Amino acid sequence: MTGSTAQQDSSGDGMAPAPRESWPKFPWRTEGLAAPQEPSKRGRWWRTFLVVLLYVGVFAALTMQDQQSQPHSVAYTEFKAQVRDNNISEIFATGQTIDGSLRSEKPVPGNENISYTQFTTERPLFANDNLLSELEQNDVTVRATPLVNERGILVNLLIAVAPIALLVLFYLWLIKKQSGALGLGGFAGKKFQPVDPERVRVTFRDVAGIDEVESEISEVVDFLKDPAKYQAIGARPPKGVLLSGPPGTGKTLLARATAGEAGVPFFHASSSEFVEMVVGVGASRVRELFQAARNAAPSIIFIDEIDAIGRKRSGSLAVGGHDEREQTLNQILTEMDGFSSSEGIVVLAATNRPDVLDPALLRPGRFDRSITVHAPDQTGRLQILRVHAAGVKLARDVDLDSISRITTGMTGAELANLVNEAALLAVKRSHPAVTQSDLLDALEKIQLGTVRNVVMPAEERKRTAYHESGHALLGMLEPGADPVRKISIIPRGRALGVTLSTPDTDRYGYDENYLKGRIVGALGGMAAEDLVFGVVTTGAESDLQTSTHLARMMVGRWGMSKRIGPVQILPEEGDPRAAGVSEGMLDTVAEEVSALVDQCHQRALTLLNENRWRLDSLARQLLENETLDEQQIYEAAGLPRSSGSGLQTSERQPS
């Protein structure tokens, strides 16, 4: 399931975007509005620099003023000299400390570059001079108050506290700048601007290949369009709809199309945006999100990757980020219980892991409905290709139906990437339009990897040709196997050669004989090397991984071993010992897996030995042409073309 990725930017529809001041700094996005312009990093740098410069300037000015107001300390002999020269204007004495000022400025003794007018000195206790009479003779004013008036309490408090206050304000400013993204401030008083429904860009016309999903979610769309008819009969529409499925199947696009089809505001948030190190931020964001949705009701809230915060809650020992995640989950549960169906709010959520979600989240009254979005079938793939190809110029030889048949298992996102890769390849080749060869080459690049410029020795090249021919021949000989589409000994990605097998029709269940045939085909490369050259190389690593995995699943999960019986031994996740599986049972599984793989390997050797001339013919043609397509493969092997129903890719890795 997917939809067209070609969308018109809302800023280009002739409507002036909303002023930046009216945009709230919420952690979610709204569909259909032009994104606010972020302030440039250069402007932020200048603001920071000016704040620091202001702090330094004010602190320096206060310090200099305080230093300038202090009188200069001079020796008592210097003071007596100024008294004799009649240069003392007035003094203030406290005990033996004398503060005063000169009639005219004098240089500091020993430092002619510095002069002073105000001074302070200490009169020695042993001084036996008649200082007061000398001062009176020179008309010196002796004051009972300080020469320099002491500053008031408020001024002294300001000078003492100002540097610390400026430092605290500076740090608060930094914290505010950093906490803007955390949601710790700045949200209060900001009014959320609802979305104009006419500017929502995606509808069900942009979605293809999911007819059954559209019918499931049509009730939500109908309720949002006309809630009165549901209320009149007493029907309660679902509060929440959970979309689950593999990545790339179009869950997010489906949610946006639902909002576009209903013509209501659409709030899009990712679960990871709610969880922060600061406890309580996620819960606060959830409250803000639901409140904004209530203000814009009827509306849709879409939470992507909800498993990030909706996992099953742990015990009382959870701390830190886990505690914050659980608080966020609890807030979501509370909010979904807190609004009624009459408010016109529907919560959509998407996840790739519905099995890990908390049961409280999935109970009726919260997420009432669960919709599984699967990878599209052949008809769905054809519809998806047509949607994505609508904006691409195609040549007349393009056959999207044939492309849809050989892309089994591909999701909507992968099909969109296929069309785009073909368009890029057409531009690179200077084609006026995308041709069928462009699409096939793009598919080959996606499935097999990018071609590497590696020159292999003749012996290595021959061994690779027999390795890939062994895969292909066994795929053609095994009953019900997938048709072989292409063989190549051109190095691609990590592989020195690749054999591609894809089905003609989709298949959703596999029997024991088919799976054994898959293992035989996977071991064909190693068996061919052993039969022809008498050696086993490391190039069969990928094949052994595939065959061992299939054998382990057949024995331990799918009940295809008579010795084990219809029992699932290997869980999907975790250690089987935690589920009570004994060591003896695990040893039995290992023995059965080894026996099954060895049995398939012996069958591969037998089939290749019986059809040695076909193997030699395939390898010879492959060495001459490097790449063989489907028709050339079957002609070289002397076998008729048969239909199959699976998907298999075998590759030989470098030794």
Summarize the structure.
This protein has 655 residues and is an alpha/beta fold. The chain has four domains: 2-6 and 23-33 and 193-372, Rossmann fold, CATH 3.40.50.300; 70-147, Signal recognition particle alu RNA binding heterodimer, srp9/1; 390-448, Helicase, Ruva Protein, domain 3 (Orthogonal Bundle), CATH 1.10.8.60; 458-652, Peptidase M41 (Methane Monooxygenase Hydroxylase, Chain G, domain 1).
Please explain how this structure is put together.
- The chain folds into four domains: 196 residues, 3-Layer(aba) Sandwich (Rossmann fold); 78 residues, Signal recognition particle alu RNA binding heterodimer, srp9/1 (2-Layer Sandwich), CATH 3.30.720.210; 59 residues, Orthogonal Bundle (Helicase, Ruva Protein, domain 3), CATH 1.10.8.60; 195 residues, Up-down Bundle (Methane Monooxygenase Hydroxylase, Chain G, domain 1).
- The N terminus and C terminus are likely disordered.
- By secondary structure, the protein is an alpha/beta fold.
- It starts with a strand and ends with a strand.
- It contains 21 helices and 17 strands.
- A six-stranded mixed beta sheet has the order 2-10-11-12-9-13, with helices on both faces.
- β14 and β15 form a beta hairpin.
- 45% of the residues lie in helices and 14% in strands.
